[in-house]
Amino acid sequence: MHIGVPREIKNHEYRVALTPSGARELVERGHTVVVEQGAGDGAGFADSAYKAAGAAIEPDVAVLWENAELILKVKEPQAEEVARLKPEHTLFTYLHLAAEQKLTQGLIDSGATCIAYETITAAQGGLPLLAPMSTVAGRMAVQAGAHSLEKAQGGAGVLLPGVPGVAPARVTVIGGGVVGENAARMALGLGAEVTVLDRSISRLETLDDRYQGRMKTVFSTADAVEEAARESDLVIGAVLVPGAAAPKLITREMLSLMKPGAVLVDVAIDQGGCFETSRPTTHAEPTYVVDGVVHYCVANMPGAVARTSTQALTNATQPFVVALANKGWRQALKDDTHFAAGLNVHAGLVTYAAVADAFGLAYRPTATLLD
Ligand SMILES: NC(=O)c1ccc[n+]([C@@H]2O[C@H](COP(=O)([O-])OP(=O)(O)OC[C@H]3O[C@@H](n4cnc5c(N)ncnc54)[C@H](O)[C@@H]3O)[C@@H](O)[C@H]2O)c1
């Protein structure tokens, strides 16, 4: 199959959809891989590394799209990319269509086959192509929080692990899923005193079991959140209610209970944020202060560590890419119902119920297209 990997053009997006080692896997299976010149630069993968892996480098993005059957990307296609999509294309990327009516219509009009990373499921539950980015964001949240606690950043001037004779900082993580567990684990590793709040008892049981009591687990109630606000030096928001905006768990009034210079890191900001005073920020200006409390609310945290994020993402996408290249989209989805959950749009039909519902469009189940 002829596979094209364009350079990402969304503002401040440095990841790339295929690494040189991923390209090699495909070339060794007899596929043609064409990478846009400079596509890997932001993630530290030079054109020469792709060439050494057997891929071709294409300077003209129009030629790349024109010749490719399978297009691999990271972010949703931007307007000029939607304009390049044809019915012969299979597009494999993050799409997040339920929040993007114009993009959804653009993909419908293109006639292309569009498979979204984020809706692919796994036999053991969860969303395997979202999890790697949640892992990155969770681990980064502690790094960002520790930095924000420094005096020069507006923080209280507290070192997370403390030192001998000085108690460590208190870190509360609200939401103990993929982001939350990774954040809690990093904070533990740095020597902080860590509490995780969640509404799922089974999740709290898992964490208690896994960390053998080294982190406290607390059922999440308004009281528990208020106590966390009062006692913590760093609070990390990592809740997710699938299909809904994040609940506002720390209210503006609660800020007055917090220690001066305490830090809130709202990882759930991409779902609206779980603190009332959160608003999205960028890596260029990641924090702001409200009532003496530092807020870090970057909506695309993994973008700051583009190399690690690219490797983590492509490790997870690789088996699906190989299946698409070897079998074509129809057979690949037919062989794997979890992969089939990724199909969002095909030949002008919306095949993902939540997207059809969001915009009042007709829904066509994927299974009816696979025979
Ligand atoms: N900012 C970024 O760059 C970035 C990157 C990755 C993920 N995220 C976001 O981080 C959030 C968490 O993602 P995840 O992958 O960890 O999700 P997840 O589903 O693995 O975990 C969410 C957890 O929140 C818990 N929860 C729900 N309501 C709660 C409440 N009221 N109190 C306490 N816990 C509650 C759930 O029980 C679950 O355990 C999502 O909003 C996701 O979009 C942001």
TrEMBL record:
Belongs to the AlaDH/PNT family. The active site is at H96 (proton donor/acceptor), D270 (proton donor/acceptor). Residues 149-297 form the Alanine dehydrogenase/pyridine nucleotide transhydrogenase NAD(H)-binding domain. It comes from the Bacteria. It is an enzyme of class 1 (oxidoreductase). Substrate binds at R15, K75. The keyword Plastid does not apply. It catalyses: L-alanine + NAD(+) + H2O = pyruvate + NH4(+) + NADH + H(+). InterPro entries: Ala_DH, Ala_DH/PNT_CS2, AlaDH/PNT_N, AlaDH/PNT_NAD(H)-bd, NAD(P)-bd_dom_sf. One of its GO terms (biological process) is L-alanine catabolic process. This is Alanine dehydrogenase. GO terms for molecular function: alanine dehydrogenase activity; nucleotide binding. Residues 4-137 form the Alanine dehydrogenase/pyridine nucleotide transhydrogenase N-terminal domain. Keywords: NAD, Nucleotide-binding, Oxidoreductase. One of its GO terms (cellular component) is plasma membrane. Its EC number is 1.4.1.1. It comes from Halomonas cupida. It holds the Pfam family AlaDh_PNT_N. NAD(+) binds at residues 134, 198, 203, 220, 239-240, 267-270, 279, 298-301. SUPFAM superfamilies: Formate/glycerate dehydrogenase catalytic domain-like, NAD(P)-binding Rossmann-fold domains. PROSITE patterns: ALADH_PNT_2.
